[in-house]
C-alpha cells in the first residue's frame, strides 16, 4: 500500500503544527507555562484593584501592569498562531511546499530544496487535526500532511497505516 500527499506550509498549516506540538510532546511544559501565566494574570489583576476606601486612578504603574496582563492574555489566545509565525520565519527557502510518498518501510519527502527518506521509527508522536495529519519528530520539529490532497486511500486508512508502521496512536485534536 502506498499513500501520496502534498502539503503547502502556509500559516494555517504552521499554526496546526504548533498546536499539535503543544498538545503532544510539549504538553507538560505548556501546562506549566499556562499555570505560571494565569498566576501572573491573577496577581496583575489584583494589583489593578484600588486599595479599600480609595478611588481608582490611572498611573504609569497601573498602565504597565494592565499592558503586561493584556500581553499575557493575548499570548494565550494567539499562542499557536505566534508559534506558527515564528516557524514561518525559520522556514528554509525551497521548503514552503512538499510532496510525500508513504511506503511500507519508510516515507519519502521532496521539496524544491531536496529529497529525504524518513524511517517510521523517527516519529515520536502523531496528531490528527480536521485538515491534516502531523508527524512529530521532536520537541521542535514536525511535518504536516494535507488530508484534502491525500491519494492512495482515505484519511482513516492512512491513519491506520501510520499507526501500524509506527506502533503509536494518533492523538485527535479538534
TrEMBL record:
User: Key word Membrane present in the record?
Assistant: yes
User: Which keywords, in A-to-Z order, does the entry hold?
Assistant: Membrane, Transmembrane, Transmembrane helix
Boundaries of every YcxB-like C-terminal domain copy: 102-162
Stored InterPro entries: YcxB-like_C (IPR025588)
Superkingdom assignment: Bacteria
Q: What is the lineage of its organism?
A: Bacteria, Bacillati, Bacillota, Clostridia, Lachnospirales
Membrane-crossing residue ranges in chain numbering: 33-52, 58-78
What is the designated name of this protein? Answer: YcxB family protein
